Records
---
Amino acid sequence: MLTVLYFARLRDALGVSSERVGLPADVSDVAGLVAWLRLRGGVWEDELAPGRAFRVAVNQDMADAASGIKDGDEIAIFPPVTGG
Amino acid sequence: MLTVLYFARLRDALGVSSERVGLPADVSDVAGLVAWLRLRGGVWEDELAPGRAFRVAVNQDMADAASGIKDGDEIAIFPPVTGG
Amino acid sequence: MAVRVQQEDFDVGAELLALRQGNPKIGAIASFVGLVRDINEGDSVAGMTLEHYPGMTEKALAAIVEQAEGRWDIYDALVIHRVGDLKPTDQIVLVAVTGAHRGETFAACEFIMDYLKTEAPFWKREKTAEGERWVDARESDEKAALRWR
Amino acid sequence: MAVRVQQEDFDVGAELLALRQGNPKIGAIASFVGLVRDINEGDSVAGMTLEHYPGMTEKALAAIVEQAEGRWDIYDALVIHRVGDLKPTDQIVLVAVTGAHRGETFAACEFIMDYLKTEAPFWKREKTAEGERWVDARESDEKAALRWR
């Protein structure tokens, strides 16, 4: 299982702040997970489309498309940060 | 008349903090005044020798060798500053 | 090093005093305070809510401060960032860095702020006359962070 | 703009608050505090006396702040510099700059400090175990000021 968290504008747009999903069989990195989430269609396809500005963290570290994902990980997907 | 002020290490070395002097006839700029003071010999010659690090202000503005001097001016001679 | 994420306001004077207390080798403290402005992108702002990612935020801030400590010869650094509801003139963030000399403290303080702006998971939601809106990330912040590479 | 040369200590928190009060357009305050260290050039320092050139000092500081205001888009700036007898951990100088955004306030604050170090008529006399000595100007301070040219 993965814990997937959504924050800020993305959470509002997707309508979910956190979910538990089984690690899809063919997903081993961030790019794969995002592609898998896009298959849900609708806002998922829109918000996570290539070229849209969002960031992904794996186990609370900033990640990129190639970062590995394994069972039990905490994944977070969120817009570019705007603190400070 | 000129008012000439000396500060910090230079005041200690020259043994004077302030003096009033008549504007020497052939002095019209900072270089001329410093050369005239050097003629006093001893510590004056040493401390104001070419190549020694000191600064001159004319009427409370930082000046250079070519800055003009006229009767009534307040001249200050001091070491490089070390505040902050 | 100390990193705090909190709803409560902070007292800059007291924080700076605590940061330097007990170290007479400190000659320099550079600090930065970020405040809520009453205007943004030309619109009047009545207030904002700061959201964050608990756990990751603290971790990200600590990693940024560690980078600064590895890069400059500084003694200590403090980051306080508020979350929750804030109104114009409220303090948002404090970054303070102590060291022997000013150059290192200025650089480290600005570096921490630039990285915080692009790496620490905080998001601002503004209240304007037209309703609430998420603040967009600024390209100028990306550029500011990139110049340290 | 305010420039003060004084023997008394100052309260950083209160000064920053006063500087930003009444202007909700301020989003950034960069500040710097210089402190007396208990060591310099490898020798232990028991205290120091700060001498200045009354009249010119205030004029020089005001001119430096005016240059900063002409160069960066800032709202206000404050410089407080102490004179007289100081001991380790005492505050020497405060420079604080307010503005809409952080980049300008950091730059202006560091510029003012760098110029103050090379242009404002202050001189330090240190008390060490070997007696009193005038502090020599540092070449690194000249270089720091030159990079703004």
---
Amino acid sequence: MPFIPHTEEELRQMLETIGVAAIDDLFDEIPAALRARSLEGIGPGLSEMEISRLMQEKARQDGQPLCFIGAGAYDHHVPAAVWEIATRGEFYTAYTPYQAEASQGTLQLLYEYQTMMAELMAMEVSNASLYDGASALAEAVLMAVRANRGSKSKRVLIPRSVHPAYRATVRTIVRNQGIELEELPYDAGSGHTDLEALEGHAGEDFAALIVPQPNFFGVLEPADPMAEVAAANGWLTIALVNPLAMALLKPPGEWGGAGADIACGDGQPLGAPLSSGGPYFGFLCTRQKLVRQMPGRLVGRTRDLEGREGFTLTLQAREQHIRRSKATSNICTNQGLMVTAATLHMALLGAEGLARTAAACHANLGRLVEKLTALEGIEPRFAGPAFHESVLKLPMEVAGVLRTLAAHNILGGYDLQRDYPELENCLLVCATESRTDEDLEKYAVNLERVLASRRQGACATMVRFDL
Amino acid sequence: MPFIPHTEEELRQMLETIGVAAIDDLFDEIPAALRARSLEGIGPGLSEMEISRLMQEKARQDGQPLCFIGAGAYDHHVPAAVWEIATRGEFYTAYTPYQAEASQGTLQLLYEYQTMMAELMAMEVSNASLYDGASALAEAVLMAVRANRGSKSKRVLIPRSVHPAYRATVRTIVRNQGIELEELPYDAGSGHTDLEALEGHAGEDFAALIVPQPNFFGVLEPADPMAEVAAANGWLTIALVNPLAMALLKPPGEWGGAGADIACGDGQPLGAPLSSGGPYFGFLCTRQKLVRQMPGRLVGRTRDLEGREGFTLTLQAREQHIRRSKATSNICTNQGLMVTAATLHMALLGAEGLARTAAACHANLGRLVEKLTALEGIEPRFAGPAFHESVLKLPMEVAGVLRTLAAHNILGGYDLQRDYPELENCLLVCATESRTDEDLEKYAVNLERVLASRRQGACATMVRFDL
Amino acid sequence: MLIFQHSRPGRRARAQAPKEKAGLDAIPEQFLRRSRPRLPEVSELQAVRHYTRLSQKNFSIDTQFYPLGSCTMKYNPRGANRLAMLPGFLARHPLAPESHSQGFLSAMHELQEILAKVTGMAAVSLAPMAGAQGEFAGVAMIRAYHQARGDGGRTEILVPDAAHGTNPASAVMCGYRVREIPTLAEGDVDLEALRRALGPQTAGIMLTNPSTLGVFERHIATIAEMVHEAGGLLYYDGANLNAILGRVRPGDMGFDVIHVNLHKTFSTPHGGGGPGAGPVGVGERLAPYLPVPLVDFDGHDYRLLTEKERPESIGRLSAFAGNAGVLLRAYVYAKMLGAEGMRRVADYSTLNANYLMKRLRAAGFTPAYPSRRATHEFIITLKQEAKELGVNAMDFAKRLLDLGMHAPTTYFPLLVPECFLIEPTETEAKETLDAFVEAMVRIREEAREAPEKVKGAPWTLPVRRLDDVRAAREPDLKWEPPA
Amino acid sequence: MLIFQHSRPGRRARAQAPKEKAGLDAIPEQFLRRSRPRLPEVSELQAVRHYTRLSQKNFSIDTQFYPLGSCTMKYNPRGANRLAMLPGFLARHPLAPESHSQGFLSAMHELQEILAKVTGMAAVSLAPMAGAQGEFAGVAMIRAYHQARGDGGRTEILVPDAAHGTNPASAVMCGYRVREIPTLAEGDVDLEALRRALGPQTAGIMLTNPSTLGVFERHIATIAEMVHEAGGLLYYDGANLNAILGRVRPGDMGFDVIHVNLHKTFSTPHGGGGPGAGPVGVGERLAPYLPVPLVDFDGHDYRLLTEKERPESIGRLSAFAGNAGVLLRAYVYAKMLGAEGMRRVADYSTLNANYLMKRLRAAGFTPAYPSRRATHEFIITLKQEAKELGVNAMDFAKRLLDLGMHAPTTYFPLLVPECFLIEPTETEAKETLDAFVEAMVRIREEAREAPEKVKGAPWTLPVRRLDDVRAAREPDLKWEPPA
Ligand SMILES: Cc1ncc(COP(=O)(O)O)c(C=O)c1O
Ligand SMILES: Cc1ncc(COP(=O)(O)O)c(C=O)c1O
């Protein structure tokens, strides 16, 4: 009975107080036929020592490969203070701050988070988080359809340069409400959205246009003209951005003439470890005037009975627990702890630190691309300016190369052909600020050997390297 | 400038307020000839990201071998809650609770610790920690010499079955005060102190007798008769014990007729990770009537102005910051954080949990000894009942065997011949509760092969095992 | 003080940023940001001190009794946190190849199996990131099922009036109309009303059992029969699974699909609002529609199944595989409980709730369903106290905070006036429950003798009662520096 | 409430103990304990909640300004803690063979080198577990040196009257008599008195420079000459190294032996009293006597040297190699600072102290050494306030606690009446220092207008002022259950 404090004596007293003979009696309203027999197949409980050993073995089993995959999840340095403080019991084991006076810690932190995130996006308001970047994009689409009073359309334009898993997620979430996603092609040379194709939709009724920055290929989208086309046609602009990149790149609030209407994305680069894909958090910012269409919680600053500053959940009439079937979203539990970490992360890095980190990623990527394209047969696939990630064309199928690299404990990147059949032999690589020069060199050296050995048709997994 | 918050502007303002032109001027009282030039050879500062990488590599470099060494440091399960709470900033970054009202957390915890430790030892009072077990034994010797009013002697009896490093430490610390340590032999058959030799000292003037339990060989000492001999001769009894073992074994307070006078030892088994040997903590308990001779801090319960219960440092007239050259010890900074961990550890395990842990260690040791002595040529060295550790005699030199085992990532134990030349080919092994049956089996299988291969004179490090 | 007020231009936590600012030459001017965002500029110590002190302003399980009904605020094992944060797990990239994923995937696979067994379902997907997303996925599967059968006329989801707000909201997100079913005086669903509501337009019903009223729906078998007969499916909102873990399995009650709030029943932390995890389980019929990815085991290797292998899936719900770190914590917890431990969760959470209900009743408070057993939670209504003493549930709640206890859930479910939904959980000790009764009695005393003490509460927290109306009327959602 | 008061017979944190109680048959009855020790019997949640709440009753660097003079309460980098607690480091057995120790030993070796360089010493041992043990080791080396030379008549250690209590106590532990040397009005050692005290009986002198008076000993070169001439050696108490890190090296001042409080200057945590680490550094003369173990590097492998390789060593000071985990934290800190960062420690800690002294003086408070520069710390004397307002240093200290700041060190050094020894450290921001001045001014105001506010302080902490006399007269050092 781990975690249960009751002694035999207390059990007896409590049953007596209740007036039953045994715990079984407390379940007497449950029809006998339904009561479960034993939980077959679930083993006996383990002590913390036993499960520790098991988990250590499992963690060890997966090794600690050198990772050059990005594709939506980035291996950034997270200050130790972030998680030492975020996992303090008072943050870790509190819940949604419904009792404001007993939750000023979480509430003030969320208010600070909203401020920081809105600043980073150059937008007017931020909510207190959604699940992840992909589902945040889906919420942004739903919100745009609700909010665009000028449009009757349930159609939204989504570039093919948006992360394929994000497009899939949006599809899952918005499909049942009859929303249609119209894909926009990317320019085969530059890798960014085909502006002509976009302009070809001028005059049509869409609720919104999605603009990723940088896009899935790491290529910078022409966000200004795209936002302008949207504005000119009465479409809302939904920015989908990497928040770390926004320390350096033009933020959604400044796109085009009037800025984007909604900015969303995944907060993972702000303090969340890779952790097999989650928990991360989705963020969503918008204009003040659209705030009542926003999904997710909001914290406001107010005053107490004595006029002191305090913080509380607000504008809850948007939410399911008040508005039920008419809520802006069904979200309830969000990603609070990740936001706690992100707030700490942003406070510790500051604008300067985030900008330096972004710049270091950019520089590392540049160095990596330089090293790899120096190898025979490898060339950059796209001409457009890239950030954070880049697409390389290899002289052979990517999947096999990655497999062999993995056997040498290097995760070489993301095989684009899986999602873009036209991008044959194309590899998406990433090198964050946490990759060292030796790491880059190690990758280049290994890749060279893998290419050579595979060219010779050798069974690569049998080849031994003297590294 | 990591960790320094000053901006350029603030620096300017502050210098202006002080009335100097530059920071250099603040050092103008230091004779110019003394001022250091650059710190040659100390490299540039690393970012947290860089040092993280470096430390991870160093940690990884040392592997995670399967460990059967005890010899004063034991690999016990420590509940995760222990260190998650002990490293909370409020414990981790406070100092000695000189301002009692602002330190009730630490002070109450220390009072609880003193109570728990005294209970475990069945003694009347415990101090709030000393450095480690070895230095605590030295302090106990000094204390005994001070406290034994009936004796004029500066001589103390110390069995050879006491941990050799402890004996060395005591020697370092007490030697300069003219204290003599008289060694007592152990019985070659049983492994515990030779009672006849002890009784041979009857009638002599000693300040104290040290009684280890269990002793360095894991053998149980005849603590009762030893304490009785001491009492009969006017020597104080200093118990040196493993605190975890005291959950099962007869505690110092119950030894002989009247109990030991001082109990000390290393608190490592109570929540301290192995951590290369430290930080651990020394504990020291004694009789109420000897408390003013005790070294180290003491916390007492008292009342505040309004009659509420509160805690404060007390009996400080024993300590260096009040009594200076007449203090009971020079100790100032002690091992507070480890005591915090130990208190949490004892609260989480309770008497039952500690007893079960001790019993599991004992059972594991039994199984290990059984497995190993089943191998050809290995036999138990001592006949006395053992606890926690045991001495095995191998059919060949221990050092080489250990080296080969280490090459297979097994740390097979402690080579006793280093300190006890007469214990030829003798190995001290330990198996705590955190060793699994598979671990024991793995050790036995490997040891068998090592013995076999070394018997055949093969160069063992070249042998490949198919494990 | 806000973190921004500790900020000074040029101040920085210098150990945290990479050193040199490498050339950004490659990026054309028009893509670059013109001015720095106004993030705080503070030292590392300032950030640590600010947020450490902020944390101390929270109530939490680790510091207070937190009987927040429907939320299962039980002890979150510290071991689960530490093990989920082992460096190896933290460093694993979500797109790491199978060769570098067997450890992680094996845990996830076993978790799928454990959840299937404990809920009586055929298959489980760990993809949903919270209860509400589980509901969405569940209803989407119901929809996919009807569509696959060409049964397109089913446009309605039934929901009891006591249901949690996420239930109707999730149904609507799946494109359904919601019809509410009333509750009878003893807390059971009104079967007559249900019968009238069922029809060819019925896609399904969403229920939690025990319901949010803290009572077990006794006619669940009948309801299942009725709904199935009408061609609808049954969705089980697993928020209250803690009450029946190892005692009754939703699958055996007739449910077709279920979500489990791992942050409740499987004790992953609530984290000031999240993250949670809301895995979904289904019977055979709905198995093809489960959201991806799923973890598969071929007897030798573990791997993730995606849309490719699962063409009928409703699809993905997140960019990767959901809240993996939360799933790891739940896995550790499940393994620590084992089969016996799970059953004891239900046993002792039910014991605690019934004990507390009985004692409060004996102390003169009014259970909303006095004829019923409590489950893991129960409701008292403070209607009478409000009328007689002029002190309402909110006042009681705020005064409890002064007495060092988090308030129960107030004013939910909506159909019980002035209500407290009280969930003590199995990890609280008898003396804590006794102290709660004492506090309630004391507050009622105070309400009689010095009502302003209660109505003005809280008095001992960092702030007094906050002005919510002002917060909503003049929303201040973002700090701006003083002009 | 004490943890024992949460205890109930039979309650347990069941996940924490091994399962079955294996047979103890092998152990004869007479060795076994007859009754269980009275440790608390609590659930895991109870333990976590109790100690989490206890922690909140502490002031600490992470939550308050903590200008405790002589203690260097600066920011303890969280990164140092995390890295020292990497599973690999925690799991390493102290007796692991060299084959499994190169990572750890390489860090220790580099730390030895860094400390030697920064102190200007020839060699360093990391063995001592705190400053006081470093002092013991240092004085023991001095003794060993004289003994080795057959210079047995040296029986005295000189110590300035301002010295920390550990200095005389350590000298006595090494078998020396202690002779105090008075201090002059401006804080320097009285050279005349020193001259009179020196002689063939002089083994050495223990000094800290800057002294505990917060001023730099200007005649240190002369002192070194005088002592050396008399045949004595100079011991440097490194508690105040923060003031001169990278600015002046004790070796260059003429010291023969030094300890460094890593928990001060190298920012390892203070942990509510410890652990610390007090490595000792020596010039060539004393190198043979360094305590073991030492870490040696032969260009290829690292290894520990023990008595065997170091026969003249004073010996070991602990069972293994000292407070290894603390040493790892110091190593991380030193590496993060680098050479430049070290110098800045001295620069900015000195800047902060001088700024604060200047501002307090401007506000009407009295520096103990008004003609002198502050070093990293300085003293004010509240003698005048005590006389005129009847409010002493203790009262000021307690009232500061109410205002959210830890008090400076009070009543030490003993020779300055009603003194505050104030050490702000380099990691505190200007606004924090300004707030301290404001608080001091406010308290003086209060002392004039409502002295009971100050004399009755603290008012806002978990307890009011505690009765120390009662604590010492009727020592209650261990809880006993009520009869
Ligand atoms: C009854 C009930 N259903 C559904 C939910 C929604 O779950 P989640 O908050 O994880 O989205 C909750 C809790 O918040 C609940 O209490
Ligand atoms: C000046 C001085 N010397 C020596 C010491 C003793 O150091 P430790 O407490 O580490 O034993 C201290 C601090 O406590 C000190 O301030």
